[in-house]
Amino acid sequence: MPENELVVFTLNCWGLKFVSKNRKDRIIAIADELSHTEEYDVITLQELWVYSDYEYVRESVAKYLPYAKFFYSGALGAGLAIFSRFPIIATEILPYSLNGLPIDIAGGDWFVGKAAASVIIAHPVLGQVQVFNTHLFAKGGEDGPEHNRAHRLVNAWEFAKLAKRAAELGRYVIAAGDFNSIPTTLPMTIIREHANLIDSWLVTHPFSNTPSDTTPSPQEAIDEFGVTADSPVNTYSAGKGLDPTARKFCGKRLDYIFYRQPWSQNSSNLAVLHCKDSRVVFTHEVPGTTFSFSDHFGLKSVLQIRMPGLTPAADFSSESQAAWSAQPPETSELSDACLSTMIQALTTCYRFSKSRAQKELALFVLCVMLLITTAVVSTWFPHPWLNPIFILFSVFLAWLGTTMLYEGFLYGNWERNALMNIVEELEIYRQRPQDTTR
């Protein structure tokens, strides 16, 4: 690969054991496709939860991507993996403060420990590049309710802080993954503006976020608007009950590749990253089958490395040449309206959490009273054959009471403390001197 290019690929593999359809066949197909391409310098995968699946992918691409890292988090693992052509010199994973509720077993976000994973690679031209891979909290759509979407806002804020800090330490930043948010939503605004990240898709498709009254065709939605999920073209989305946004736009753009320069007081001497090409890939069906590679499509971005004093290549489009000639801004900040909306969502979630905890603790007390009553009644009941029923009922009450105690007291306090910490951070951010933002 040319030393003046960095090719990045990201894909949500939908690799849940026992749950995801055709998982083994799809993982094998994904690995084979990646091994035959050999064009990527960095690959970030999400929902790759089964370690043997990761090993298969790693062995398949090891010939041209010899460096890899599988990340552990939560009870079931983060499902995140990064593969690199260049040496990995450091790794890190930071679980998000809030990831849904322990009682939400169907959602599963709390159990997997959604996190921001990263590696630092040693690039021969750029030096240190910190590559982030993440998968944000799934529930809590664009329309709320406020207490539900607050957890994804927390994820976005914490992710943006990490990316910004990496740039302040003098590293180039590449951030990819499944952000579970369409481009116009508040979580994406936080990530772009607080971390000053550049959306690679928008560099090459500058009008794809422009509202349209017409519904694109499924292929136009992919090619022009970067749709990566809930597409009618995807076999796992076809016929699925979709929300109004997905129906109107033939899917959603949920997967992103961002990048930015390191912060420097003398940025004119630094090489500049610029997205030359960005496209949705893995849109075809697995060869020889009738199903897609995943319930998401992949995203590929080609980042050109511009050395100081050079001009854009002749094969760039006019829009790309214009973007290339402009230095990326060194400063960015969240608007007061954005901060107010975030604080409102977090405080609403705080009040909802407190109310929910009171109900759960009341249910815990009720379970204790019922357990005592069951124990007393079972000793006096004249029919011994009913004792097994009383035992099963007692086990259920003990489980429910313990769960409500944990959820209402321990987790409830954890959630509210995390929410208040971030609200206070946002208030401090709002009151900071304006010239301190980078």
Given helix and strand content, the structural type is alpha+beta
What is the 3D shape?
A: globular
Percent of sequence in beta strands: 15-25%
Largest sheet: 6 strands, mixed
H/E series: EHEHEEEHEEHEHEHHHEEEHHH
**What is the CATH top level name of the largest domain?**
Alpha Beta
- Please give the radius of gyration in angstroms: 24 Å
CATH architecture of the largest domain: 4-Layer Sandwich
Number of domains: 2
Helix content: 40-55%
Low-confidence stretches: 314-328
DSSP summary, beta strand count: 12
Strand order of the largest sheet: 3-4-2-1-12-11
Separation of the first and last Cα atoms: 33 Å
Average pLDDT for all residues: 88
This entry's quaternary arrangement is: single chain
For this structure, the CATH topology of the largest domain is Deoxyribonuclease I, Chain A
CATH superfamily of the largest domain: Endonuclease/exonuclease/phosphatase
How many distinct helices?
11
What does this structure look like?
By secondary structure, this protein is α+β, with helices and mostly antiparallel strands. The chain folds into 2 domains: 5-331, Deoxyribonuclease I, Chain A, CATH 3.60.10.10; 337-436. Helix content is 41%, strand content 18%. The protein has helices at 23-37, 51-61, 109-112, 146-168, 186-195, 200-204, 218-225, 244-248, 318-325, 336-380, 387-431; strands at residues 5-12, 42-46, 67-70, 81-84, 88-95, 115-123, 127-135, 172-178, 198-199, 255-260, 272-281, 298-306. Helix 4 (146-168) runs parallel beside helix 5 and helix 10 (336-380) packs antiparallel against helix 11 (387-431). The radius of gyration is 24 Å and the shape is globular.
